[in-house]
Amino acid sequence: MSHVTYKVVEHDGGWAYTVNGVFSEPFATHAAALAAARRAVAEQRVPGRTEVIEYETPDGKWRTETAAGNDRPETDVEDSA
User: Fold this and answer.
1) What is the DSSP-derived secondary structure letter of residue 2?
2) Bigger pLDDT: 80 or 45?
3) Which ranges of the chain does DSSP label H, i.e. alpha helix?
4) Which residues make Cβ contacts (< 8 Å) with residue 53, sequence separation at least 6?
């Protein structure tokens, strides 16, 4: 099982959370960013439907695979404040 950490950080004069180097939308307060990160963590744990997905790899190749709806990652929030 994979593990995903959401990190709450200062960003562009406000606050955001980041996952694997990608930032969320900005939030005016630390508390708002932390609450949003906690919601995202909870939502990512919810099982979904098994579906066929297609995506492009970093080297430009397209892949098709089946994503199991019950294969959810472990998640947590890391707070930098």
Assistant:
1) -
2) 45
3) 30-44
4) 64, 65, 66, 67
d(CA 36, CA 28): 12
Helix (H) or strand (E) holding 76: strand 74-79
Instruction: Look at residue 43 in the predicted model and tell me its pLDDT.
Output: 92
Alpha-carbon gap, residue 15 to 36, rounded angstroms: 11
16: its two tokens: 């955001």
Q: How many CB atoms lie within 10 A of CB 44?
A: 14
DSSP 41: H
E strand or H helix that includes residue 64: strand 62-67
On the question of pLDDT at 81 being above 80, the answer is: no
Q: Which of 3, 6, 25 is nearest to 15 (CA)?
A: 25
What is the Cβ-side half-sphere exposure of residue 25, based on CA atoms within 13 angstroms? 6
